[in-house]
Amino acid sequence: MLKLQTLFFSAALVLLSSSVLSAESSTAKEIPVMAKQVSAELSIFSGLPDPQWLLSSTEAQQFYAIFSTLPSLQQTPPVTPSLGFRGVIIRSEADSSYVIYKGYVWSLAAGTTTVQQDTDQVLRAWLLKTSQAHLPVDLYELLVQESEPKQLF
Questions:
Q1: What Cα–Cα distance (Å) separates residue 77 from each residue in 56, 116, 118, 141?
Q2: Total-model pTM
Q3: 54: Cβ–Cβ under 8 A, 6 or more apart, which residues?
Q4: Region 53-65: what's the mean pLDDT?
């Protein structure tokens, strides 16, 4: 079941990435200038270091392209817990970070926080695809389960 789900997300990501990249010039949000290093961190442990990995320049471009298409959230987003799975954090050297948690993305840049919603789960699919090579199987499966969007309304 997990392999089928991963295959589905990979196919959806490929299709959407190509449409996102072709529609990139018509988006309202700007894609940030690429930082030298963009990292990802699975925020899950208390008292132990969280797993981290570097994104390739292609993965970083994909992240920014997908993020730029996400709609802004008008309602109050869920609160991330203080223990257990707290999302995935994407950090760039350009002093910005993004917290991805249950279908929502908090963008923290230049002293401003905004929240977008990953309504179609495109960012989640990208995240699952890119993290699989960097995480042990048990943590990857936990990410698959814990990153399911949370229905608020």
A1: 29, 9, 12, 24
A2: 0.71
A3: 37, 38, 39, 40
A4: 94
